[in-house]
Each structure stands twice: as structure tokens, then as C-alpha cells.
Amino acid sequence: MSYAAGFKSLKREATVGALPVEGAMPQWLSGTLIRNGPAQFEVGTDTYNHWFDGLAMLHAFQVADGEVSYRNRFLESRSRSEALEHGQISRAEFATDPCRSIFRRVMSIFRPRLTDNACINIAKLAGDWVAMTETPLPVAFDPETLETVGVTEFADDLDVQTMTAHPHIHPDTGQMTTYGASFGRSCRYHVCAIDPGSRRRDVRARLPVDRPSYMHSFGLTERYAILSEWPLRVNPLDMLLEGKPFIENYEWSAQEPTRFRVARLSDGEEVTQVEAPPAFAFHHVNAFEQGDAIVCDIVTYNDASTIDELYLERLRSDEPTPAVGTLHRYRLPLGGSTSLVKPEPLSETQLELPRVHDQRIEGRPYRFVYGVGARKAGNFTDQLVKINVESGASKTWREEGTYPGEPVFVPSPTGGAEDSGCILSVVLDPKQDRSFLLVLDAETFSEQARAPVPHAIPFGFHGQFLGN
Ligand code: CO
Prior knowledge:
Layout: E1 15-16, E2 22-23, E3 31-40, E4 42-43, E5 46-47, E6 55-64, E7 67-74, H1 78-86, H2 102-110, E8 121-125, E9 128-132, E10 139-141, E11 148-151, E12 162-163, E13 168-169, E14 176-182, E15 187-194, E16 202-209, E17 219-220, E18 224-229, E19 232-233, H3 236-241, E20 251-252, E21 258-264, E22 270-276, E23 280-290, E24 293-301, H4 305-308, H5 312-315, E25 326-333, E26 344-345, E27 352-355, H6 358-361, E28 368-373, E29 383-388, E30 394-397, E31 403-404, E32 408-411, E33 421-429, E34 434-441, E35 447-452, E36 463-467
Antiparallel strand pairs: 1-7, 2-35, 3-6, 3-36, 4-5, 6-7, 8-9, 9-10, 10-11, 12-14, 13-14, 14-15, 15-16, 17-18, 18-21, 19-20, 21-22, 23-24, 24-25, 25-26, 27-28, 28-29, 29-30, 31-33, 32-33, 33-34, 34-35
The structure holds cobalt (II) ion (CO).
Cobalt (II) ion (CO) is lined by residues 120, 166, 216, 282-283, 461-462.
């Protein structure tokens, strides 16, 4: 049994009043962990191609007084309802394009039917919890029942075709900052701020670009947004004419540098562009200002082949799959230096799905990052790691034959040290054909409790803890 079990569809929706708990849940832990991820990889005789394509399912673990309840529900997106109605995949996803006829393809150029299969992350937007993918179609849901409410319409006329599933939420004000891209005769990145309770995306910076880069996330400090243009770029005409799935229009060029573009939020001015060696990343970890520079920590790869490693056929093949990268620190001078910036590795311990104490250190100096890791290259993600970015030292948690998902940090209500709190992770146990919620002491990284659910949960991406 291997991690391939995490890419099997889960069709069953369940509500369990009380999960069995082994160990002792922290008495102070009170709230709901909601996780998002794909759970259905086939419709009729069609199959999605990539891990990022499957139909979204939400999972909620409600914790109070040492007890845990669980429920899971599909996100009732238009993509899903159309697919179920017609018995075939309906809308184009990250690496799947169902456009079957030239006519439909031409029509879709003029009236793009972007997917609302929001299987990547969740966030609070305009007072609602929404599920998100990389299109500007967030889908609101009820965090208690997981019932789908519907696509949140923005109250502005910003015309973007992509929007990151990794917005930043200001720890004090709750303001969301996000970025999207518009494709056309001229292409632009748009950095926008959305006030809590508002559905208006206020554009803070507009950056022109000839060939947009695929950027899954971006960096944000108190005063600056940092877009990291990896040399995985698309000619926008290809996107319209080539007829390939979204991501397959992007081309990797090892000859081109990575280009960091830094925009000042107060006036939208692009204050500097900084070049670095070619690399690829999904996840910015954190960024902060330090003297005349911006420090930007990112989980990077040598190239974009990691995207190819995550096609379902490969993930299900039992072949070794590397799924973790290296934590690198880029120091971007604000003074307009044109020399190449060399990234500095922060630890030998590799990771992915990085999380920090985002309520305290988002955009500020910090010490700890948590993530999934791999004991051996190719093991997919068979451990959890905690890295001290100052010393490079790390702690790990692992249990033979199990595969943990993204570790979400929940701070202790009494505050204290940056790592005072617990870590929540949903772990797949293929031998038992089920998953369990794992609770670790964030400081010592030792297990406090676990609560098994009655089925195996396919590997998801991101989730958030909603405190009571
Ligand atoms: Co992500």
C-alpha cells in the first residue's frame, strides 16, 4: 500500500457526531478545521488528468471540549452540476480541457466559461467563507453544514481570468490582498485589496507583462507586494489558439531568469525588478522588510517539472514521486540593484504546503515554518516537518506507512512563544483504508491526539482553522 490510495475518488458524504479520540485533545482547542481538496477524479467515462483538477470536496472537523465531530460534502459548483447532468467533464480545469469541438472551442474564446471547481483553499471574503481555485469565481459555503451557497460576485469591473487561491489576510485589519492576471492583446497582473465585508477589489498596482508567468502564490509585506515571475511563461495567443489545457500552454525556459517584481501598495509604483537564477515554486512562505531589502522565503524547485510529477496517472503508478522542495531565502534589494540575487537555502529539510503562525507573523520577521516532508526523496509526503528558519534546525513527525497533509497551526489562546499552540493535519492511513485527524504539540512536535474518520480522504491542498 502506498500513497496512491490518496488519489482514489471519495464519493461518500458523511456526518459523524463524535469521532473516537485516542490521546487527549487540548482542552483549549475550540473551533473547526475546514479542509479543501479534490475528491472525484472521474465523471462518466471521462477522467481528470491532474491532482489539481478533481471536483472539490470540503471536510470539517469540529472540535470542542476534547471531542471531535466530522462531516464532508462536495462543493456544488456549476462545474460539478453540469458534469453530473451531462455525464461528462464540462469545464476546463488546470490540466484537463473537455472542449470537444472546434465550435465549442471558438465559442469559449469569446465567452470563456471559467471553472468554479474551487478545490484549492478557503478564505473569508465579504463576510462569507469561500472555497477558491485559481479563477476569479470564489464559491461561498456555510461553514457549519458545508452547504454550498454559490459564486460570490465581485462588486467591481475588474476583468481578470486568473486569481490566486493564496490571498493574504492582514493579521490586524482582516483586509485581504490578492493578485489576478488579465490576458489579451496586452496582459497585466493586478494586485488588489478587499476590505472585510466588501466585495470590491481595489486595484493597488497594475503591472504590464508580455508573457505572464504561472505564479500560484505571491509575497506581501506591510508596504509591498512581491510577484515572483518564474520562467514558466505563456504567450497569451497560444492560450487562445493552441487548444491545450490551461497549464500546458506555459513553457519552461531554463535560459530565462526568475524576475521578482516589487510593487508599492500605497501608490502602485513598481519600485524594482530583481533577477534571480531560474527556479519554480508554488508557495511563498513569508516575506518581510529588513533595512533596504525585502526578505522573501519560498519553497522552490530547480524547474517546473514538479507540475508534471503531479499528473494522476503518475501519482497512481506507485513510482517514486518527489513532492517537496527546498526552503530558499531571497534578499531583494530595494535600491534598484540589477545584479543577480542568489537564493540562500535555509535548511536541508525539504517541505511543501508550508504554513506559519499567520495571525501573528504574516509580513513580519518569524522563526518557524511547518510543512509536509519526505523522509526519502520520492516518498511523496510521508512526514510532517517544523523548520527553524534562523538556525535551519528541524523537527519531524512520522508514522510508518502513513501520509500527512498540510499542517495548520492553531495558536494557544494564552499567546506566548511563536510555536505555542498545536498543529492539525489530516493523515492518510492506506493500510486501514481511512484517514485521521492528527494533533501535535507545535513546540515539541509530539502527538497529543488523533481521531480516525470512517473513510480514506483523498489528498487535499489547503485548509483553515475557524476559531470559536
Ligand atoms: Co497552494
